């Protein structure tokens, strides 16, 4: 059973993952000046993820210039995460690994079961999380969230940069927070 969606303006779940560069990423311990951009990806087996992370790496300096810390996270183990970091030449973004499936569910991510080898000949893990993109304020509350059931049609990072520019310049509040009766 899937958990309910996270709500903007409310605290997000805890997040503590190992990094491919050593050390750990602990959400809230050292947040970006404006936001943390958390990009949950399926893993090394996913060619769509590699393409998406290549674009994120290309724009990582643009996010950093806006005070946004960029972290890409998967359930992969250290070896597979290291291979993905090398594949996308990660230097401007952090790559976290070892996300538990329980934590993935707490973040509202969908889970999928393995279907064997992918189109690039890499075995899928037995169970893994599907993509999600979250923007979190330094106070640990959700600003933006998008989750998907498939690897396709993810939020374009160039669009997110424009949205961040608008949010910062207009002090635009997080939306989607209404929980009253309808």
Overview in brief:
By secondary structure, this protein is α+β, with helices and mostly antiparallel strands. Helix content is 27%, strand content 22%.
What does this structure look like?
It is a single chain. By secondary structure, the protein is of the alpha+beta class. The chain has one domain (16-170): Glutaredoxin, CATH 3.40.30. The protein has helices at 47-65, 78-87, 101-106, 157-170; strands spanning 16-19, 24-26, 35-40, 68-73, 94-97, 111-113, 127-129, 132-136, 142-147. The strands form two sheets. Strands 2-1-5-4-3-8-9 form a seven-stranded mixed β-sheet, covered by helices on one side. The longest helix has 19 residues, at 47-65.
Q: What portion of residues is helical?
A: 25-40%
Going by CATH, the architecture would be 3-Layer(aba) Sandwich
Classify the secondary structure makeup into a structural class: alpha+beta
CATH class designation: Alpha Beta
Any key phrases for this structure?
182 residues, alpha+beta, single chain, seven-stranded mixed β-sheet, Glutaredoxin, 27% helix
Write the layout of secondary structure elements.
Elements: E1 16-19, E2 24-26, E3 35-40, H1 47-65, E4 68-73, H2 78-87, E5 94-97, H3 101-106, E6 111-113, E7 127-129, E8 132-136, E9 142-147, H4 157-170
């Amino acid at each position: 059973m899937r958990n309910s969606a996270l709500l903007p303006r409310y605290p997000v779940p805890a997040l503590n993952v190992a990094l491919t560069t050593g050390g750990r990423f602990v959400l809230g311990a050292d947040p970006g000046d404006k936001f943390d951009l958390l990009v949950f990806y399926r893993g090394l087996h996913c060619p769509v993820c590699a393409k998406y992370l290549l674009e994120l790496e290309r724009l990582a300096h643009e996010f950093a210039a806006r005070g946004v810390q960029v972290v890409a996270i998967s359930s992969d183990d250290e070896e597979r995460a290291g291979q993905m970091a090398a594949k996308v030449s990660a230097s401007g973004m952090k790559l976290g690994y070892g996300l538990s499936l329980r934590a993935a569910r707490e973040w509202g991510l969908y889970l999928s079961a393995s279907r064997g080898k992918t189109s690039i000949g890499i075995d899928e893990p037995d169970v893994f999380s599907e993509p999600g993109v979250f923007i979190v304020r330094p106070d640990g509350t959700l600003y933006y969230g998008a989750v998907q059931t498939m690897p396709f049609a993810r939020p374009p990072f160039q669009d997110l940069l424009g949205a961040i520019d608008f949010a910062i310049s207009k002090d635009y509040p997080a939306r989607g927070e209404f929980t009253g009766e309808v």
